Amino acid sequence: MIEVSYIRDYNGIVPEGTFLVESDVDYVKACCILTANVVPSGSTKVWVRQKAHFIWLRNFAEQTNIDCSCIEKTPRLMLAEIWNVAIPEWLDDETVTAERLLDLDITNIKSKRFEDTMLTLFFDKAFYAEKLESGNLPDIISALIGTEVRKSLKSHPVLRKCLEEKIKVWVRNTHEKWVKGICDNLLQDPENLWKELTLWLLLAGYPQKSLEYVVPLQRAISLRTIPLEIIQDLQLNLVAKEQALTQIDIFFKDLESSVKSSSEFRKILECCSGRLEKEFQFIIKLLLSKQFEVSQEEVDLIRQRFKICPGISSATFASLNRFIVPKRPSLPEKNDLWDSDQWLEWAVDEYIPYRHWQTQNLYYDAEIEDVVGSFSDWYMSEYAAIHKDSNKSLIHALGRWRQDIINDSLSLILLIDCLPVTFWHIFNATLTKSGFYRHEIGNRFVPLPSDTEHSKGSLLSGSWGNVGKTYENILKERSENDWGGRRIVYLPNLKYLSEFELPDEPIVMLLNFLPVDEVLHSNVELQGSTYEEELYRLFARISESVKSLFEKWQGQPERFSVYALSDHGACRILNEEKETLDSKTISKLFANEKHRYARVKQSETGQIPDNLWDFGYKFSQPFIKEDSAYFIPRGHNTVSLVSSNKGYVHGGTSPEEVIVPIAVFKPVKAEWTEPALRFLDLKIDQKSGRAVFYIQRVVPLQIEVQNPNRENVRILRVDVLSPDTDVKACTTPDIPGNKNGIVEVDCYFNKSARQENELRLQFTYEIAGEEKIKQLHATVDFKSAVTGGFSLRDL
Q1: If 670 and its partner were Cys, which of 63, 361, 439, 568 is the partner (CB 3.0–4.6 Å)?
Q2: In 99-157, which ranges are continuous DSSP H helix?
Q3: pLDDT above 70 covers what percent of the chain?
Q4: pLDDT for position 42
C-alpha cells in the first residue's frame, strides 16, 4: 500500500526515497505512480506540499479504487515518525516549522526522548543520562560553555526548553542536595558554575579561607557539599585557575620556612590538588630546602598526588630520586680481586645510581672515590683482555646480532651518542610506551679514550682503526662481510628518518643521533631544567619517529628490529675531584672542555710535566699502531682548567664513562622462558614423603630461582595461595640472566592450615618490563607446634 501524506505548514527537506508533489506536473506523475502502485526507489511514500494536490490525489484514489492511505499530518506528527521519539506537549507545530527541526540529521542518535535527541545532537552524548553523576558531569559542563553553545541556543531556542526538561529529570532522579544545587546553576549560568567548580577542585585541600577569598561564603558552603571525585575529570577554567594559584602561592609562602619534618611535609602535600604544575614546583622547593630527610615513601606520595597533572613527565618524576639518599655501594675487601662480571654488577646496580645522586647533591664520598680509582686500575690492567672478549667489548656488540640482522627485513641501528647507563631507563621507558618490547639488554665496555673518535667507527666496523672512513662506508663493508650485502641507509638526524621512503628490499638503517651528547655537555640546570627532562624530550622524539617508521612499513612485525647502542658514557666532576695545574702545556693538552684525556706524540711524552702522570695513566693503543700516547685520568681526576661548565664530560676511565648499555627491541612480545623454582632444605617425613611445617610459628622458606633467559628477572612479590598464611617477610631479588638466585619467605601458618595438605606459592616477577606469574607447590603435613619435639620413633 502506498502512503500519501500532507504535512501542514511544512516546507523543509523531504526524506530520501520519498516522492514529492509540489506542482501540477508532479501531481500527474503521482497519479501514474498510484495507478502502477510502485513508487520510484522502492519507497511506499508520497509527500504533498499543497493541500489542493493532496485532496485531488485522495479523490483520484477513491474514484479509481486504488488501494492507498491518504493521511493529513502535522509537523509534530511527522517529527515523531521520522525521529521515532515521543513529542512533548509543549512542542507545537509552529516551533517545529520555524526551527526547521525536520531538516536536522539525527542518523547516529538513538533515543526515544525528543529532549535527549536535541541535546545530544547539539551538545554531547552525556545528555542521554538519566542521572547527573561523576561519569557525565564534566562532559555536560564542557558541552554548555563556549561561543558555539550560545550560537546554537540562539538559532534553536527550543534547546533551552529541552535543557530545562532534562534538568527536571535529573532533579527528580536524585536524593542528593548537591545535584539540585548544580542543576539550578547549570541552567542559570553554566560558565560561572564551571569557574566555581574549578576553584573547589583546586582549593578543596587548602584552608577554608582560601576558597572563601574567591567565592561568596554561601557558595563556598554549597560547593563543599559536592564530592571531589564527581569533578576529577573537569577541564579547568583558566580564570579560576589563576585565582586559585594566587591563594596557593600565599599558602606556600606563609609555610615554606616552617616545614621541618616529613610529617609536616606530608600535611602540606595532602593540601595539594595535584592538578597544577605550579603546586609541584612549590613541593620541589620544599624538598630543596633540605629541612627534613626525604624517604622513598614521600617520593611515592608525590608521584601518586601528581600522577594526572599535565606537564609533568615520567622523567620529571624520575628526577625526584635525587632527594632520596640511596644505599651506599658496597666496598670490596682489601684483598678482593673482582672480575669483569663483579665490577659490572657493582657499577650498574650500586655505584651508578649512587653517583648520580652524588652529582645532583654535590656530595663527595672519599671512600667510594677510592673504589672508583680501583676500578680504573683494574680496567687499565685488563683492557686488552676485555676487548678481546666478544661478550664484554662494545666493539663486538653488532657481531653478536649478526644472524638476527640477516633474518630481519628491516634493521634499525639507533646509535645514540653519549648515552650513559645513568639515563638508560628514560630511553627504555619511552620506546616501550611507543609499543616496542625489549628482547635483550646488556652492558659493554667501551674503548679508550672513551669518546666518539675512538669508539664509534670501531663499534660499527667490529674492528680497530678506521681512519678516514665515513660511517656509511664502514657499514657498507660490514654489510658485505657480515650481513649478506644488505642495502645500507645512513641517517644523520631524525628528519632524514621521518622523510625516508622505505624500499621493498631488506635494509639496514643507521640513525646517528647526536643531540644527547649536546645536551649532556651543556648546563641545562642553569636554564631551570634537568637532564632527565631534556633527555626525555629527545627520547620521546626518537620513539615517535621509530613508531612512525614501523607504521608505514609493510613487512612482518617480527622481522622489524631496533638495535640500540651508545659509543661511550659520560660523567660529572665534583669540585673536590678537580685539580688545576697552572701550565701552558696543560692548557694546550686539554683544550677541549668536553674531554678529560690528552693526546701527544710518542716523541713528545718526555715534555709532559711529571706530576700530570700522578693523576692518571700513560696509555698506548694495544690493537693498532699509531704515533700517539694518551693521558687517561684515573677515577674522576681531572686536570683541565676549572671552568664554569657544570655539564658532563668523558674520556676517562670511571665506570659511568666506560660502561654503556646495549639492547634489542621489536614491535612484538618476546618469548621468554619461565624461570624454574625449587624449595631448598625442606624437612621431609621419611614415611609419608611429605614436607613438614608447623602452624602458629614463623617458618622460614628458601626457594631457588633459576633464570634461563639472557634478560634479568626481578621478583616483585610472593603470595601464599594456600593454606591461610601471614607472610611476615619476603626478599625480592633481581636475578641476572642465566644465573640462579634465592628468595626467602617467612611464613606464619594459621590454625586452619591443619586441614590442608598442600603448600601453594605464587611468584609475581618482571622480565623486560612485562609482569608475569608462576606457581610452586609442595605436598605437606601441617602440624601443631606443641606436638613438636623428638621421640624414639624419630631415631
Answers
A1: 439
A2: 114-122, 137-143, 147-155
A3: 95
A4: 52
Q: For residues 23 and 504, what is the distance between their CA atoms, to the nearest angstrom? A: 63
pTM over 0.85: no
CATH topology of domain 313-572+648-670: Alkaline Phosphatase, subunit A (3.40.720)
Report how far residue 656's alpha carbon sits from residue 347's, in angstroms, rounded to the nearest whole number.
8
Omega within 30 of 0 (cis) for the link into 492: no
Helix, strand, coil shares of the chain, percent, nearest 5, are 45, 20, 35
pLDDT confidence bin for 10, thresholds 50/70/90: low
Contact in structure between 653 and 375 (CB atoms under 8 Å) = yes
What are the sequence ranges of the domains in the chain?
Answer: 2-73, 126-241, 244-306, 313-572+648-670, 676-794
pLDDT at residue 792, as a whole number: 37
φ/ψ of 461, rounded to 5, equals -85, -30
User: Cell numbers at residue 148, please?
Assistant: 558555539
Which residues contact residue 662 at a Cβ distance below 8 angstroms, ignoring those fewer than 6 apart?
A: 394, 397, 441, 442, 443, 444, 563, 564, 565, 566
Residue 582 has pLDDT above 70, yes or no: no
Tell me the CATH number for domain 676-794: 2.60.40.10
Helix axes 471-482, 452-461, angle to 10 degrees: 30
CA angle 641, 643, 648 (to 5 degrees): 105
Is pLDDT at 84 greater than 60 in this prediction? yes
- C-alpha–C-alpha distance, residues 553 and 503, integer Å: 9
Verify cis geometry, omega within 30 degrees of 0, for the bond prior to 449: yes
User: What does 304-327 look like in DSSP terms, one character per residue?
Assistant: HHTTT-TT--HHHHHGGGGGB-PP
Q: Residue 776 contacts by C-beta under 8 Å, 6 or more apart in sequence?
A: 677, 678, 679, 703, 760, 761, 763
User: How far apart, in whole angstroms, are the C-alpha atoms of residue 677 and residue 471?
Assistant: 47
Three-state secondary-structure class, residue 19: strand
Is 50 exceeded by the pLDDT of residue 315? yes
| Tens-digit pLDDT profile for residues 388-440 | 999 999 999 999 999 999 999 999 999 999 999 999 999 999 999 999 999 99
- Let me know: does 258 contact 264? Beta carbons within 8 Å: yes
Decide if pLDDT at 672 tops 50: yes
Q: Round to whole Å and give the CA distance between 17 and 745.
A: 75
Per-residue confidence band for 793, with pLDDT thresholds at 50, 70 and 90: very low
Q: Do 188 and 164 form a contact (C-beta atoms < 8 A)?
A: no
- Tell me the CA distances in angstroms from 173 to 179, 225, 596, 752, one per residue in order: 10, 18, 74, 48
Q: How deeply is 455 buried, as exposed, middle or buried, from its count of CB atoms within 10 A (0-12, 13-18, 19+)?
A: buried
